[in-house]
Write a structure and sequence with these properties.
Layout: H1 2-17, H2 21-33, H3 35-38, H4 44-60, H5 65-91, H6 107-116, H7 118-138, H8 140-167, H9 172-200
Length: about 200
C-alpha cells in the first residue's frame, strides 16, 4: 500500500510542477484575480480526470501482459523524457518572466482546458495507468492509495502555486523553480522504477 501511496505523491507533485496549459492558466488567474478567487480552479483535475482515467483503465485492463510490459517500458522512457525536459526548464528558468493575462476564468474553463489537453491522456495511459491497473489487480486498496496520493499532492501543489503567485510574486518564481528541480529528480527516479517494472513484469 505504502509504495503506491508514495508513487502517487511523487507523480502528483511531478504532474503539478510540469509547465503546461493548466498551470499557465492557474498562474495567470492568480496574478490577475488574486489567490482567493482562483483557488477553486485547482480542483479542475478532480472533475475532468474521472472519465479520462476510466477510459484509460478500461482499455489497459483488456490488453495482454506483454502489452502492459511494453506500456511500462514506454512509460518509463516517457517519464525520463519528462525529467530531462523539466531539468532543462529548471536550468534555464527565468525568474523575471511574467505570465500573460488570461481573459478566460472560472472552474468550468479550467475543467475544459484540462479535459482537452493531451497531457492527462498521455499521463494516465503511459505513466500512472499501468501502475493503477497493476495495483488494483493486487487489491483495490493499492489502486485507491495511488489515486489518493496522486490527487493529494497534485491538488495541494496547484493550490500552493496559486497562493504563491497570488500573494508574493517575488517569491513565487523561486519556489516554482525549486518545485521544478524536485520534480525533475522525482521523475527521473520513477522513470527508472517503471523501466525496472517493465523488464521484470
Amino acid at each position: 500500500m505504502w509504495i503506491y501511496l508514495i508513487q502517487g505523491l511523487g507523480f502528483g507533485l511531478a504532474a503539478a510542477s510540469q509547465p503546461g496549459p493548466l498551470q499557465t492558466y492557474l498562474i495567470s488567474q492568480a496574478l490577475t484575480r488574486g489567490w482567493k478567487k482562483s483557488l477553486v480552479n485547482a480542483l479542475a483535475p478532480l472533475i475532468s480526470d474521472a472519465p479520462i482515467i476510466l477510459l484509460c483503465v478500461l482499455i489497459l485492463s483488456q490488453v495482454p501482459d506483454w502489452f502492459q510490459r511494453f506500456l511500462y517500458i514506454a512509460g518509463g522512457i516517457f517519464v525520463l523524457y519528462l525529467a530531462y525536459g523539466t531539468y532543462k526548464t529548471w536550468k534555464n528558468f527565468d525568474e523575471n518572466q511574467t505570465q500573460p493575462e488570461s481573459k478566460i476564468d472560472g472552474l468550468p474553463k479550467a475543467v475544459m482546458m484540462n479535459f482537452l489537453s493531451p497531457g492527462p491522456y498521455i499521463f494516465w495511459s503511459l505513466v500512472t495507468g499501468p501502475i493503477l491497473v497493476k495495483g488494483w489487480r493486487e487489491t483495490p486498496v493499492h489502486g485507491l492509495s495511488l489515486l489518493l496520493g496522486f490527487y493529494l499532492a497534485f491538488i495541494s501543489a496547484l493550490m500552493l502555486i496559486i497562493f504563491i503567485f497570488g500573494t508574493a510574486a517575488k517569491i513565487g518564481p523561486k519556489v516554482n523553480k525549486a518545485m521544478l528541480g524536485i520534480s525533475a529528480v522525482a521523475l527521473f527516479l520513477f522513470g527508472l522504477y517503471q523501466l525496472w517494472n517493465g523488464f521484470n513484469l
